[in-house]
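Help needed: design a sequence for this.
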């Protein structure tokens, strides 16, 4: 596609910054751009009919504290800062939120060293953490059982779909829905993007916040992202007896994986989500077991990193798959934290898909990953806690984009 003549005046551009992706990261970036540099012309292209219909709108709405993340990492810094900013943003715009706190519970002696390590990590990240014994666990959650726990007071819940809609409304950006990007033409003086409808949008700088499709967009721009998105479906249940749980209850996570394990989350609507377990999805938007996209599945299977993951972590994966296929096995995982739960208490809830960046050697990218190319900024790994951290991530991406405008 060629969309440029020799004229490089402002009149040759439809906007200064073009953002691909109308999830919470793309909309936070647009919001940050117009605040950092008033008068900046921003266009957002989103392939769906509205904002936040994938990762942003398909999670349990937790405002994460940042306790899990390596001190000094982007996840740690942005989650701690982002949690406070998200609460402030929701309060400012009258959006529903609640700071609930949460318990992380050890149910086996082998988990106690990992629980203690979380205490140390949380304190290094500046997070208030209280250590609890079995009797103190019952003070917070009478039905939960464990050997020890920690209480993290800064965790909360909100409605990230509502946050995304507010960001869209407040950003001042020109947002186009139903605008799937099919081609990118990057030149020394700018970028032109063509959508599935044939429309062409010209910009000085491109920002790729395409989430589940970010690596594909990077390749459209002519860049090798050095990773692939391998989609994992997160399967949830809803608790029929929500009164069994007062707030948020998590197991001690396995540090080898970026997943937090099966947990219980009382959402902003009062319902309790249980899950997720994580299984490979057969499509990037594979929310159901029968959702298969042959081309995307072939891309996953031909990526060397996928096979490295399978060889290294097959035992973990087999356990996740077993819980996916057996409601009884899933219930047993929940009963480790909440012995009173019965299989009949769990009813299926909508699934989500995590866009997990995987390197060629099978490394699961653990931190947020933002890379620059000429006149382009790519956000290549932004899974949980990206929604929590969306405001500081958006500011950082906006800062990089504005630097390309200078």
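Sure. Designed sequence:
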């Amino acid at each position: 596609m060629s969309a440029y003549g020799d004229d490089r005046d402002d009149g040759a551009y439809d906007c200064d910054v073009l953002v691909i992706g109308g999830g919470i990261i793309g909309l936070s970036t647009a919001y940050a751009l117009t605040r950092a540099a008033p008068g900046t012309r921003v266009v957002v292209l989103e392939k769906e009919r509205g904002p936040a219909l994938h990762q942003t709108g398909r999670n349990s709405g937790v405002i994460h504290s940042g306790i899990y993340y390596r001190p000094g990492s982007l996840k740690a810094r942005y989650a701690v800062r982002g949690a406070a900013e998200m609460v402030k943003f929701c309060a400012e715009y009258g959006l529903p939120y609640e700071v609930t706190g949460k318990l992380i519970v050890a149910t086996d002696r082998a988990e106690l060293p990992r629980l203690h390590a979380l205490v140390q990590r949380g304190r290094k990240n500046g997070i208030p953490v209280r250590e609890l014994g079995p009797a103190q666990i019952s003070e917070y959650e009478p039905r939960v059982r464990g050997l020890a726990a920690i209480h993290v007071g800064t965790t909360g819940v909100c409605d990230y779909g509502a946050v995304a809609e507010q960001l869209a409304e407040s950003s001042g950006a020109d947002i186009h829905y139903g605008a799937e990007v099919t081609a990118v033409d990057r030149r020394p003086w700018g970028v032109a993007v063509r959508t599935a409808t044939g429309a062409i949008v010209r910009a000085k700088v491109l920002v790729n916040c395409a989430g589940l499709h970010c690596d594909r967009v990077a390749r459209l721009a002519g860049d090798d992202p050095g990773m692939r998105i391998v989609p994992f479906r997160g399967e949830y249940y809803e608790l029929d007896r929500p009164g069994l749980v007062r707030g948020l209850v998590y197991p001690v996570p396995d540090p080898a994986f970026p997943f937090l394990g099966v947990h219980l989350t009382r959402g902003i609507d009062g319902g309790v989500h249980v899950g997720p377990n994580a299984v490979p999805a057969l499509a990037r938007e594979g929310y159901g077991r029968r959702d298969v996209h042959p081309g995307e599945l072939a891309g996953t299977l031909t990526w060397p990193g996928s096979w490295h993951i399978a060889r290294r972590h097959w035992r973990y994966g087999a356990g996740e798959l077993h819980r996916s296929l057996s409601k009884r096995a899933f219930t047993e995982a929940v009963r480790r934290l909440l012995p009173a739960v019965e299989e009949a208490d769990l009813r299926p809830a909508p699934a989500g898909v995590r866009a997990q960046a995987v390197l060629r050697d099978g490394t699961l990218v653990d931190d947020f990953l933002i890379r620059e190319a000429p006149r382009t900024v790519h956000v290549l790994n932004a899974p949980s806690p990206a929604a929590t951290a969306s405001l500081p991530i958006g500011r950082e991406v906006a800062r990089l984009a504005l630097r390309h405008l200078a």
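The chain has two domains: 10-55+162-226+367-405, 99-156+228-359.
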